[in-house]
Predict the 3D structure of the following.
Amino acid sequence: METTRSGFLNDEGPRVKFCSRCGCRIPVTSPYELCKECMKKELFPKVKEFINENYDVNEMMVAQEFGIERSIVHEWVREGHLEYKKRPQF
Ligand SMILES: [Zn+2]
């Protein structure tokens, strides 16, 4: 699980690193060790639970809660994976 190939196989220069789970390339500018797909697999169920348990959650709150970028959360929402729960109005 902790295998990283970026140490020796960086013949393409230092601008490449690899996902620590699946080994696919991720942008070196990424602050994470996982690619977006693995991040999604790992965090998505938790994010969904978080949203289900809290009203008026927004991207910012999710991003802060899980320490991920807002753009990633935004992507999940846009892809239809997440739906924010609105506080019922009576
Ligand atoms: Zn991955």
The pocket of zinc ion is lined by residues 19, 21-22, 24, 34-35, 37-38 (CB under 6 Å). Residues 16-78 form one domain. The beta strands are 16-18, 25-27. The helical segments are 36-53, 59-66, 70-78.
